[in-house]
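User: My collaborator and I are trying to settle a disagreement about how two of our proteins should look. Neither of us wants to argue from intuition anymore, so we agreed to look at predicted structures for both before our next call. Could you fold the first one, then the second, and keep them clearly separated?

Assistant: That sounds like a sensible way to settle it. I'll keep them separate. The first protein:
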Amino acid sequence: MLYVSAVTILLAVIVWLMPKNMQRRDIYILWISVSFVEIIVDVTLGSPVFGLYYFAGEDKVSPEALGLKLIMAPLFGVIYFNYMPKRFLRFLPYWLIWAAFSTFFEWTTVYFGYLTYKNWNLWYSALFYFAAMPLMRWHYFYIKHEE
């Protein structure tokens, strides 16, 4: 839990200091959207029904893990959306890099004991990230407020 807490603090500092290419209301909407998707996916797949993985050494989602999920995933999302290229051809390498980075970061959470796989493996996550990134891009351009 210490590793993920440290990463969350670092992400908060990065997001606070980075130049923003988005409007505050877009950040707000994306924060809620990313939190919602993160919680629904993890509570569903980590539930006793599926039991594919769990967090923080517990078979259920603890309040501490839930709190971190409500902060950490949206912070990654703000960075992802803030620097995401508008043109699709430029988005392709960005997409692949973020999918690879997300998979690597998930591996580090497994390594440091925050995430424990039961009936899941890292390749499933890589496929999920590969599919989710373009969907997130579509969602961003759908909700984005023009200046």
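The second protein, kept apart from the first:
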Amino acid sequence: MEREVLEFDIQFVGAGPAGLAGAIHLANLIEKHNQSITSGAPGTAIPETTIAVLEKSARVGAHGISGAVMDPRAIAELMPDWRERGCPIGSDVTSDDVMFLSSGGQFRLPFVPPALENHGNVVLSLGDLVGWLAGIAEEKGVLVATETPAASPLVENGRVIGVRTGDKGINRNGEKKPTYQPGADCHAKATVLCEGPRGTITKVLEQQLELTAGKDPQVYATGVKEIWEMPAGRVQKGRVIHTMGYPLSNDTFGGGFIYGLSDTLWSVGMVTGLDARDPTSDPHGNLQRMKTHPYVRALLEGGKPISYGAKAIPEGGWYAMPKLSADGLLLCGDSAGFLNGGRLKGIHLAIKSGMLAAETLFECLVANDFSKPRLSGYDRRVEASWAATELRSMRNFHQAFDSGLLVALPRTGFQMFVGGLDPFGDHLKGHASHERMRKLAQVHPAGKPPVPKADGVLTFDKLADVYLSGTLHDEDQPVHLKVADVNVCATQCRAEYGNPCQHFCPANVYEMVTDEGRPKRADGSPELKLQINASNCVHCKTCDIADPYQIITWVTPEGGGGPDYKKL
């Protein structure tokens, strides 16, 4: 069976806020331009333009997850009548609290740091938002292709000419099934990567095209989130609570959030830095522990979780962003690190990046010139935008936490008042997330601490939460989590780090199980082997990021597989 070749003018990879905003804005610009030409303005009309958005999930929004409190600045630029058109917000923000939690008590900050003030912002579900945007894009003639994962880049003579989508109908042994269907080669004059954090194609092209040369390494956190359904009257719609402290140690970046999504729904989540020193650091476990705090427990009492998900978050800031353009290529959204860690926000920056990409592509269409110099206009647009101003103002935010929370608080406060400058310099060097992990014996000389048992009412184990994520994959397909050498897992990693993949994965994908085919060790303990439960995967990319040996590679599974998030 021959591989189909599809020709588009412009293609966006990923139907998140960046890709969909870019497609909508480009369609609007073309329509406005052609209307002006029809009305007698000088110039030439742009011929019919094919704009495609390729999305790996079964429906747009199924893989969409964020906190989410959105700054509406960018969406108001995209469509000034966004409210009138029915943008699916949960609520306008009605109150802000920042809480410092200890193991048994809490302290409300007497003021909200400027970066965390949310007056004028809205609480929403990212999945609902992108589902709505997809409908608008389709109304404008954009092709939104679901179950179409971009698996590999197509590069000729240093120019990105498109992407190859994933094959379907391959069994777990790599053999073709009767349902085999090869992926298509999707060619375009320009490809815009909006894959989200640690994108599969972005990761390949960053190395192949040297997009990260001279840049700081990106550093990530993992956000884990549950939606709790509460009895009527128990949720203050629009209430925003951020927490710091418990259950995280002083030297672990992160914090919690509780948002009133509606009058019956709490959005409850925890962000844990993947640059944690402790190899047993567990983002899912941290959320469960946070919920046991008396302050949080009281808010959730009488409710039940109805949805769950997890996602990596690019926290590196301005200096960790890759080059944003190359020959035939633009990068947007989380793929390019458009996230303000100090404000805990990225949706508005993703939308703005997509719009700036669209303006660059519109210029290319008018000039009929998609050369590398013309596409580099995107970099200049970003540099001159309010998005860049905002990102530069938080350029050293995450790095300030390298010395721990108590030192970071005054440092980040200083940064916020002087435009991002840190007391120790204008450019604090970053580090890759996995580089800070210490050996197990250094952190826990007496062995791993016990894992609290879930009670099934307030706290839940990973498998129970994975069920709430709706994740589903065809079991008879190649494992999409590629481990270069499983012997490292059974020997070196077990001895040095205690197999941290069992802890940092929020979906119980990685398990060390008894290897019945090998004799016991000298101390009588069994030999272990890695078992990969790929069907549990929620596509968060944590393993690809946090593995201390960097031997795990996340690749796209068959299209349509993965989580089916609701209200996340």
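Some points you might bring to the call about the second protein. Residues 287 and 299 are 14 Å apart (CA to CA). Residues 5-76+130-215+322-392 form a domain with the FAD/NAD(P)-binding domain fold (CATH 3.50.50.60).
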